[in-house]
Amino acid sequence: MDLAYIPSPSRGVLHLGPIPLRAYAFCIIIGVVVAVWLGSRRWVARGGGRHTVGDIAVWAVPFGLVGGRLYHVITDNQLYFGEGKHPLDALKIWEGGLGIWGAIAFGAVGAWIGARRRGVPLPAWADALAPGIALAQACGRWGNWFNQELYGRPTTLPWGLKIDKTLPNGEVVSGIYHPTFLYESIWCVLVALLVIWADKRFTLGHGRAFALYVAAYTVGRFWTEWLRIDEAHRFFGLRLNDWVAIAVFIGAVVYLVLSARLRPGREDPDEIDPQATRERAEAAAAAEAPPATPRRTPLRAVRRRTRRPRRRRTRRPSRTPRTPRSPPEHTRRSRWGRSRHGRRGRPQLPLGRLTLLESRRSNGYVREARAARPGSGAGGRPPCPEGEPPA
């Protein structure tokens, strides 16, 4: 009796009304997001633009999905073609079945198209994305856990995977097996860490970081493939994917050695992303330029905009002129032009009506105020005798 094992999920799809939400698809989407995020950070550190990795991934991801499905259908054609098979099932990608070899090959074609449109060298872009691809594979392998597929031989280890499902041909599978999906997921994480460390330690460039990822992944894929028991084509006692892993490993190692001899070092940061280089140059020129003096609005224009509309004047009806009233007694002035008690705040003496006489002197015209007295020719008081001070 097995006391410890890894349980398998009872189902790998949730239905949100009529819309099915499949865990396998979510694992792939999470892997793509992680790969683009990490690749963008590495690309910016190398001197590229922030959006370059995402712009090229728009081309690479669809090509990779198509290539991975084609590789699976070609190598496992007995699952979809023949008596009692349904060829349209080959389009059901959500049921699992993506070959990493086809995904990488077709994804490279899509990346080449996107890099050519962007003016970016493909090897430099692949170096920046290599650890992210390994982490994307680590996330995607958990989709096999939800689908209860790609398990290994029976085992009694405490980390064995509990499988309980019915195959399409009606066969029931139940038991504890090696969790090969978990082995490969952990191995991909270690490959990503290895590539990041080697890239910093040896300054890998011109596609060598990507070649290191490919070589390291094929080593782990060889022994996990050896543990699997699902149906596959065999040649000389080895599964087809084992032979592919060997061939790809040899090609990656050869490229790694030749590239280090022919093109040592890393690409120039100013040459890997011309568009980002132009954007940085324009930003630097704008920062160094003196700030532009704001144009002043003429005062006349300001007044014109802030002027309030004038009120239309209405003609008032004419009024009968009033008879002017004589000022109060305490405000009347004396004949000398000032009040008796001073100019301010004092009551003034009532002095009657004033007349202005104008006399010519040697220094000009001088106005003299004389008080008209009652009985005088002007109808006021008579003038004071000479020598007598005014009252």
From TrEMBL:
Protein name: Phosphatidylglycerol--prolipoprotein diacylglyceryl transferase
The UniProt record lists the keyword Lipoprotein: yes
Provenance organism: Kitasatospora cheerisanensis KCTC 2395
Record's compositionally biased regions (Low complexity): 283-296, 347-357
Membrane topology classification: Multi-pass membrane protein
Spans traversing the lipid bilayer: 23-44, 56-74, 94-115, 122-143, 176-198, 210-228, 240-258
Record EC number: 2.5.1.145
Domain of life: Bacteria
One cellular component (GO) term of this entry: plasma membrane
Compositionally skewed regions (Basic residues) per UniProt: 297-319, 332-346
Region described as Disordered: spans on this chain: 267-391
Annotated signal peptide: none
Keywords: Cell membrane, Lipoprotein, Membrane, Transferase, Transmembrane, Transmembrane helix
NCBIfam families: lgt (TIGR00544)
Pathway assigned in UniProt: Protein modification; lipoprotein biosynthesis (diacylglyceryl transfer)
Family: Belongs to the Lgt family.
Encoding gene per record: lgt
